[in-house]
Amino acid sequence: MDFLSSILQQGPELITTFGSKILAAIAIFFIGYQIAKFLRRIAQNTIDKANMDATLGRFVINLVYYAILVFVLMAALDQIGVDTNSIVAIIGAAGLAAGLAMEGALANFAAGVILIMLRPFKVGDYVEIADISGRVEDIAIVQTRLITFENETVILPNRDITDGKIINFSTRDYVELELSFFVDFDADIEHALDIMNRAAENSEFVIAEPSSGAHVVKMRETAIELLLEANIMPQDRENATFDLTKKIMQGFQQGQVKMPMRRWQTAQAHS
Q1: Bridge partners, 270 (sequence order)
Q2: Are residues 97 and 130 in the same domain?
Q3: Among 72, 110, 179, 271, which one is most buried in terms of CB atoms within 10 A?
């Protein structure tokens, strides 16, 4: 009864003391929340004016916003007497464990930030990454999506992109397509080169300037290698390869240009 009586006697004082602390904590959190919202709007306007990538911009804004909210929450809890040191330690340990568990994701995230900041390519560019060629459809914070010339969707982790070689065909007005063909030793070389040059001139995918040309490369063991260097737009590489190969093979057949029994043709684009 003495304990209960003591509590009842101290009730008004306790309510006044803790009530004021609770009200102060609520005020701190409310004011801090409004400040966080205000700073988020400012950050959004700044990023919009700077034309920063939308994905990276959203991440930076949310990171700043929630960091402020955590700080405000800790200040509010400290106001009502909660030991925030233990909470900080728990959050730190949880963050370390999450970081170790998500090592690969964090590496991809860091690579995504590098890609967005340095911009070795942009959406719509035609690239070759990790031996995969295609058009960049999307650059996300942890992965990049390509559409290949075969209309396949390929998703690449950003870490694989930054660790490897990147060829961006779209950084140039045109790319050079090299097509090799092989003819017999007793074939009419000048006639074969003329057929290849006319094929380039008549192809809708080959640009006029700079001009394209066919050349003798070297004598192989079983054939003579001829090379056509055709200048094309980056997005036309596959169509140009099909079109030129068809025109040249038909020209060889109609012009009776002798080809070896074992025929092969290779294509490679260079910026």
Answers
A1: 176
A2: no
A3: 179
The strand pairing partners of 146, in sequence order, are 136, 154
Q: Give pLDDT tens digits for 216-271.
A: 888 887 888 999 998 888 778 788 889 999 998 999 888 888 887 654 444 444 44
Residue 141 belongs to domain with CATH number:
2.30.30.60
Query: For 151, which DSSP code?
Result: S
Cα–Cα distance measured from residue 85 to residue 57, given in angstroms and rounded to the nearest whole number: 32
The domain tally of the chain equals 3
Tell me if the bond preceding 260 is cis, omega within 30° of 0. Answer: no
Name residues whose C-beta falls within 8 Å of residue 28's C-beta, 6 or more positions apart in sequence: 72, 75, 76, 79
pTM strictly above 0.90: no
Q: Are 132 and 166 in contact (CB under 8 A)?
A: no
Q: Is residue 106 part of a domain?
A: no
